[in-house]
Specification:
Bound molecules: zinc ion
Number of helices: 20
Largest sheet: 4 strands, mixed
Number of domains: 2
Radius of gyration: 22 Å
Oligomer: single chain
Helix content: 55-70%
Order of helices and strands: HEHHHHHHHHEEEHHHHHHHHHHH
């Protein structure tokens, strides 16, 4: 019996580690670097090059060009005697990504104050538990074979900003942000990033000449909307706001049909030129609060409620499949549908041969 229990415990441990590898070396590296800056050392370009060879930090740069803001805020927050607000004011071309810089510096200042608590949190096993649960959450909105597609993504826990990112094979998760979230919401937060990591392997995008930016912009509805089924849909349906979302979360989702109608007008008026496609991409971007999450989750909820979760899961390849499924679901539910002209132009932009 004893050996059996022992074997069972070993199997459970192995099963858990197969669920997701959590790597916190990025947090250690963050503090080592912060301590050097706090000790008065001026880091060179090659010091920062080495910092960004860490796979988690490299991911933040490759996926979202975060190296400049991470370097800036680490210097501003940890160099002795620097006034962070003044440093933000004096930053060269400070209009660019101003909110991101301010938020990141505030987040790193908060991390400095809570260094001991972050260490305790990382030792508590909370991220490992949330990862295992998050993987199951993500699987509910993915094709059945998704989890057989190789080992689960590795999770790099970092300190950078209140965020996470996911791509095939890897996720990054901010330690302080995870610590601040109510425990039950970390599985959903990490599950959303897991969804991204797997969904990308099903993504099939194509575009006509000049239409890449428009197709990618519309694909954010698919990518963020389907992942947001994991961490936003249940809150919207129950009329509550998840941790970290803005006060306007519910109204922003509710306002989606009005924005889709504006997007419809833009798509219906497209001409097959680079200028027309890129102007449309910019307008779609402006009409996408939360970068595609909110329009996308509204459309994904419509598909799930109208045609079932399996149909939603089968529509993850890109905007044509996703908008088609939305059309059918929205017709059944008598809510906003795109015009025939808009749908024909979407197909043409996506390089679908018109008959
Ligand atoms: Zn996302």
């Amino acid at each position: 019996m004893r050996t059996l229990l022992f074997a069972l415990a070993a199997w459970l441990l192995a099963a858990q580690s197969a669920a997701a590898q959590v790597d916190t070396s990025g947090v250690d590296q963050f503090w080592r670097t912060a301590d050097r800056i706090a000790a008065g050392e001026t880091l060179t370009g090659s010091d920062w090059d080495v910092f960004f060879t860490h796979p988690g930090y490299r991911f933040t740069q490759e996926a979202a060009q975060r190296r400049p803001v991470i370097e800036f805020c680490m210097r501003a927050v940890f160099t002795p005697g620097v006034d962070v607000a003044a440093a933000l004011q004096n930053r060269s071309n400070r209009e660019r990504r101003a909110e991101l810089y301010a938020d990141t510096c505030a987040h790193m200042s908060a991390a400095r104050e809570q260094r001991a608590e972050i260490a305790v949190f990382l030792n508590s096993g909370a991220i490992e538990a949330a990862s295992a649960a998050g993987l199951e959450e993500a699987a509910r909105w993915l094709p059945a074979d998704a989890m057989q597609r190789g080992a689960p993504p590795r999770i790099y826990v970092l300190l950078f900003e209140p965020q996470g990112f996911g791509r095939p094979g890897e996720l990054v998760v901010d330690a302080l942000y995870a610590m601040q979230k109510p425990a039950g919401q970390n599985a959903q937060f990490i599950g959303h990033e897991f969804h991204h990591a797997y969904r990308e392997t099903y993504q099939r995008l194509a575009w006509a000449d000049g239409a890449q930016s428009l197709i990618e912009q519309l694909d954010r509805f698919v990518h963020e909307g389907s992942a947001s089924m994991v961490d936003k849909a249940a809150y919207y349906r129950s009329g509550t706001i998840p941790f970290g979302e803005s006060e306007t979360f519910l109204d922003d989702i509710r306002g989606t049909p009005q924005r889709l109608a504006q997007i419809d007008a833009v798509l219906a008026a497209l001409s097959p030129t680079s200028e027309s496609y890129s102007a449309a991409a910019d307008t779609v971007d402006e009409l996408s609060p939360g970068g595609g999450h909110l329009n996308g989750v509204f459309m994904a909820m419509t598909i799930e409620e109208g045609l079932g979760r399996e149909t939603l899961i089968r529509s993850l390849s890109g905007p044509v499949a996703f908008f088609d499924a939305y059309q059918r679901a929205a017709q059944a539910r008598r809510q906003f549908v795109f015009s025939d002209a808009a749908m024909a132009n979407l197909r043409r932009a996506a390089g679908v041969q018109l008959r």
